[in-house]
Amino acid sequence: MLVIPLPLKVLFSENDNVINVKRLLVPLTILWAFLAQGQTATILGTVLDANNNPISEVNIVSGNLGTNTDSNGYYLLELVAETKNTITFSHLGHENIVLKDVILNSNETFEFNPVMKTDTIQVAGVIVSPTGDKTLEGVTTIDPEIVRKIPGANAGVENILKLLPGVSFNNELSTQYNVRGGNFDENLVYVNGIEVYRPFLVRSAKQEGLSFLNSHMISQLDFSSGGFQAKYGDKLSSVLDITYKTPVDFGLRVEGSLLGAGTTLETISKNKKFSSITGVRYRNNSLLVNSQQTLSNFNPKFVDAQSYLTYRFSKKFHLNFLGNYSINDYENEPLTRQTNFGTINDPRALLVFYEGKENSKYSNALGAIKADLLIGDDVKLSATTSIYHAQEEEFSDIIASYELAEVDTNLGGNLGGVTSSRGVGSQFNRARNQLDALILNLAHRGKYKKNGKTLEWGIKFTHEDIRDQLRESEFIDSAGFFIRPSEPPVINNQPEEPFTGDLVAFEGVQAINFAKTNRFSSFAQFSQQTQWGNNEIYFNLGMRAQHWVLSGEGFNSNSQTLFSPRAQFSVKPDWEKDLLFRFAIGSYQQPAFYRELRDITGSINPNVKAQRSIHYVMGSEFSFNLWNRPFILTGEAYYKDLNNVNTYTIEDIRIRYAAQNNATAYAYGFDFRLTGTFVPGAESWVSLGYLKTEENIDGRGNISRPTDQRLKLAVLFQDYVPTIPNLRLHLNLVYNTGVPGGSPNNADPYDFQNRLRDYRRADMGISYIFADSKNKHPQGHWLHGFKEFNFGFEIFNMFNNQNSITNTWVRDVDTQQQFAVPNFLTSRVLNVKFGMRF
User: Fold this and answer.
1) What are phi and psi of 287, to 5 degrees?
2) pTM to 2 decimals?
3) Cβ(124)–Cβ(144) under 8 Å?
4) What's the 3-state SS for 700-748?
5) Measured over all CA atoms, what is the biggest interatomic distance in the chain, rounded to whole angstroms?
6) For residues 591 and 548, is the Cβ–Cβ distance under 8 A?
7) Residue 766 backbone class (left: φ over 0; alpha: ψ -120 to 50; beta: rest)
8) Contacting residues for 120 by C-beta, under 8 A, at least 6 apart
9) Which end of the chain is more exposed for a tag (fewer CB within 10 A), N or C?
């Protein structure tokens, strides 16, 4: 700390007397500077909110000295030693914390981890929450504690996202989700600014049994369902931005249930420079999948381990590491299946008898290093390098013999049993698919923020190396005759003339692909929050650019350059009513990833262009009090104009692209969400959304897209017993109207526009809190050593609704009519779980 006793303009005056003074004071000043360096002390720590989550951008001031917390809530401030200091912690939406008369010894390091209480502040008629700046940006922020508590067959972040308006999917065995008419490949996911990738060879709900995102490691969750800023990348639909927490002390969490177990370890060094959080999880979905109609010996196992490490070389330079390794292993030996379907007047049943087995295994590894450099209080720079490696394989040999039969409807007979057969047949599926993917990223980002103005920029290089081998075949026969594919046509005059042609698979794919892609992308955006009269104004203007080059064996190289301008604008009028309005418009172009380049034959089409979508989003936010408790009603209307559309079909969660860019499409709708404390102290919400999305293929007219899910209603509700407040209830309800059910193989989608049945599901969890931050026990009590301890049970699909994900198509031999037989999902399942933290 340098102290100068006289102003510089006096020291360097040309007055002789002053020059003499300068000659005398310069050595004294140098001596004082050295002495002052030994008379400083340091206060450091992490600022937390009421849920023990770090708070960024907290302003910390002591006299004319000051600093801000970083994205992990960490701060370090040097003070004058041996004197009284007053330190003030302030943050929008929280009560100030003031430390008075703090006296530290010379060279002393004092750790202080304050917990800031929420304080709703009225600013120009706006009720600002602790994350009020994000409401201006149109980003939904969700408390991670809700993610950890709400029950679901695939509990975690994605389970909560499906309760938001505009987000849907009707498969509880998958962590994939659709947003406003988009598909699974159109969603961006970041963890601490590092992009996260998903497996490539996925089908039949065999994606991650575990989400990449470990809910017990999360400190902040932000989600945007459209109209997002330029800094967020080049996908068409949504952004999920996750921040993993930085521990402030030692902690160990252990949890378990009938579906698996997990542990999370938090550590921090004595000098507070090194911290780590590590999670290990195991899951087995046998309890869920064995409740389906297909009886099988199914043993789906999932294991993953991940760590986030931080080392603070100084208050200005931090080095972070994110590592993850996961194994998803599926061993399935199907046995039998009976599915009753049809109508009351014409009930039918499909009986299937299986032989053989299938084994699929996906292993994925991610390693990333991120360096953060703070230059003063205004500039933040970061550099990130990451590598992702996936090794995936699907091996399958399944023979399925089926019988299409009539069902007994006689109450006095074998109700629901099979009477007479309408058709018999068999099907042989064989697969030998292997994929090896290596993705390397190098990125730089910067941020300059001052006086309510923010400038952000970034540049990124991505290299993708994909090696893929596809070998699939499907043979179908009926009454002893193999069914050949419709193309090319074959002359068959049996029984008059014997047919001597080879047995050919009804559907077969054989391809070996080696593809490499180099992508160069960049962005720049400027935002400002200011006043227009008495009105609060916020705007953001940004531009993204990308150039990508595709090369590989067996096809010509191709390249494309893209520019995507985007803008967001928010205004809070100076009204008595607490209303905020938002508008966003932007171009969103998604360059083809490997799976989008591969057509239905398995071959790569190097001429596939980026799909393009123009987003128009208008929204509002109304804050009000009801029952003397705060509520927020948000609403958005949107329209998406899409061209260069790469059409696709969905088999369970497997996407098959046409790789033609031969369609245009649109999506429009509205979303509403009412959030508040319906029960004091417990946040709940109700979501309602309407969506319509259609596509026009080769100018033939509009038909529903595979994700055309018209109506969405979801409820998240938390409650407790007033006389027993530690007894908690968590409930989530979802209702979605049915999506198009797809079409048989090699069939024209314009001829098959029937829909699946509506999706209805209710999951409930009841737990008892033995110990937490509000329920501490004295020394000597058996619960004294627990920071948290809870025990409870969950009921999945508690009304036992029969939901379906896709159809199996079977043919009646007599009429040659094809029937759509629904593939039902899980029935009612009971799960018991516990969680404890030390």
Assistant:
1) -60, -35
2) 0.80
3) no
4) CCEEECCCCCCEEEEEEEEEEECCEEEEEEEEEEEEECCCECCCCCCCC
5) 126
6) yes
7) beta
8) 93, 127, 128, 129, 630
9) C
* Cis-peptide into 822, omega within 30 deg: no
Residue carrying structure tokens 């004197």: 83
Say how far apart CA 227 and CA 586 lie, in whole Å.
Answer: 6
pLDDT digits (tens, 9 = 90+) for 585-626: 999 999 999 989 998 888 999 999 999 999 999 999 998 888
Residue 417, judged by CB atoms within 10 A of its CB (0-12, 13-18, 19+), counts as middle
User: Please, what CATH class does the domain formed by 140-504+518-837 belong to?
Assistant: mainly beta
Rounded Cα distance between 350 and 773, Å, is 54
Mean pLDDT of 177-206: 83
Residues 6+ apart with CB under 8 A from 326: 208, 210, 212, 302, 303, 304, 305, 362, 363, 364, 365
235: part of which helix (H) or strand (E)? none
Proportion of the chain above pLDDT 90, given as a percent? 36
CATH 2.40.170.20 in the chain, residues? 140-504+518-837
Q: How far apart are CA 760 and CA 738, in angstroms?
A: 10
- Strand positions, DSSP E, 143-273: 167-168, 178-179, 187-191, 194-195, 218-224, 238-244, 251-257, 260-268
Residue 45 CA to residue 97 CA, distance in Å, equals 14
Which of the 8 DSSP states describes residue 54?
Answer: B
627 exposure class (CB count in 10 Å sphere: 0-12, 13-18, 19+): exposed
List, in sequence order, every beta strand (DSSP E) within 63-193.
65-68, 74-80, 85-90, 97-102, 109-111, 121-123, 126-128, 140-142, 167-168, 178-179, 187-191
CB 647 within 8 A of CB 616: no
Angstrom distance (rounded) from CA 391 to CA 129: 44
Give the list of residues 6+ apart from residue 591 with CB closer than 8 angstroms, or none: 234, 519, 546, 548, 560, 562, 610
| Positions of CATH 2.60.40.1120 in the chain | 38-119
158 vs 179: CA distance, rounded Å: 12
Q: In a 10 Å sphere around its CB, with 0-12 CB exposed, 13-18 middle and 19+ buried, how is residue 734 labelled?
A: buried
Task: Give mean pLDDT, residues 792-812.
Answer: 79
- Residue 394 backbone dihedrals phi, psi, to 5 degrees: -130, 115
Looking at 95-234, list the stretches that DSSP marks H as alpha helix, in order from N- to C-terminal side: 132-137, 144-149, 157-161
CATH number 2.40.50.140 given to 38-119: no
Q: Which residues contact 753 (CB under 8 A, 6 or more apart)?
A: 703, 704, 740
Q: Tell me how far CA of residue 592 lies from CA of 519, 605, 609, 612, in angstroms.
A: 11, 10, 7, 11
Decide: 188 and 226 in contact? Cβ < 8 Å.
no
Read off the pLDDT of residues 323-368 as tens digits, 9 standing for 90 and up. Answer: 999 988 887 777 777 777 666 667 777 777 888 888 888 899 999 9
CB 180 within 8 A of CB 228: no
Distance CA 232, CA 213 (A): 18
Radius of gyration of the chain (CA): 31
Q: In what order do the strands lie in the sheet with 74-80?
A: 74-80, 40-46, 109-111
